[in-house]
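Subject: Predicted fold for Flagellar protein FliL, 142 residues

User T.R. writes:
Posting the sequence so we have a shared reference for the thread.
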Amino acid sequence: MFKNKLVNIMIILLLVIALVGTVTVIIIQKVNAKPTNGKLSIDQIIEYSVDEPEITTNLYNGDFIKISYKIQTSNKDAKAELTKRDFQVKNIIIQQLSQMKSEQFKQKNSITNLENTIKNQLNNIMQDGKVERVYTTSFILQ
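User M.O. replies:
I've generated the structure tokens; pasting them so everyone works from the same file.
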């Protein structure tokens, strides 16, 4: 009977030690966590982004444009999907640009509006996440 009591005490002590250790690890992780305020770090933005190489195409009025983008996705799965959909990305960009005139690019927020339009159209085809932001990285109008 004395032997069973000793085994029970040892089991209880081991459980208490494991519980205290687990709580300590959780507290340490919470204290050391960097506040993100829901924003991604620059490393995460780069990790989840796809570089779209320069595209040269005609505008509606006959002028042409050279433009390239960095497209930020919501996660690694979305990045992988967007990489596979490269031909659709190019198609969406070319379709949008071919409907625009060079005069439109002289208006305030024209590039931002184009970026948002591309983002919305890409999100319509995405299945494993979404496009968070489209950045214009190169722009030449001729």
